[in-house]
Amino acid sequence: MPLTDEQIKKIENTVKESLRKKFRTYRSETHSMPFHYRLLGRDRMALFSFIHSLNTTFGTSIFEPVAETLASLNFQFAQKQYVVGDTISEQAQSEIQSIMNDLTVGEDPNKENEIERVRKVCNKGRMNKLRTVKVDLFVQSHDGNVYLFDFKNSQAKYQQF
């Protein structure tokens, strides 16, 4: 399904506004780097610092809103910075730790089995409060499948539930 003119405009405006804001508010984070300055020069270090800052901005100010817009075209629900939870059962926490221990000692991963192990105990035992857990993008399809995305640089990693 091609993008409508309105969707293209919305994406263009998201990119333009993000870049304008970055140009207006940018402050260098690298203040004292004598070795780097001598090796590469102040101008190159300033450019590197700005580009690094821009890449960080792209994640939250461009990639997430654009991904949300694009996902909303084909999915029932799409939301950026979605809160997925703030509690976990003691038994689920223990099972997750057991899976991590198995992987640490070299056992082969088995995603389907690991998910099933956690699902069996996800509501058993005392519920412990966690820091709020967010994903960069939450998407639910029309048939009820849920996809959770975390963007890292220009790559997205997702998990289907």
Description:
With 161 residues, the protein is α+β, with helices and mostly antiparallel strands. The chain has a domain at 1-74. The protein contains 5 helices and 4 strands, in the order αααβααβββ. The chain has helices at 5-25, 34-40, 42-74, 90-104, 111-121; strands at residues 77-89, 127-140, 146-152, 155-160. It has a 4-stranded antiparallel beta sheet. A hairpin with a 5-residue loop joins β2 and β3 (146-152). α1 (5-25) packs antiparallel against α3 (42-74) and α4 packs antiparallel against α5. It starts with a helix and ends with a strand.
Oligomer designation: single chain
Number of contiguous helices: 5
Percent helix range: 40-55%
Unreliable parts: none
Share in β-strands: 15-25%
- The helix/strand series, from N terminus to C terminus, equals HHHEHHEEE
Trace the largest sheet across and list its strands: 1-2-3-4
Shape: flat
Number of strands: 4
Give the secondary structure arrangement, pairings included.
Elements: H1 5-25, H2 34-40, H3 42-74, E1 77-89, H4 90-104, H5 111-121, E2 127-140, E3 146-152, E4 155-160
Antiparallel strand pairs: 1-2, 2-3, 3-4
Helix pairs in contact: 1-3, 2-3, 4-5
Brief account:
The chain is an alpha+beta fold. The chain is built from 5 helices and 4 strands. The protein has a domain of 74 residues.
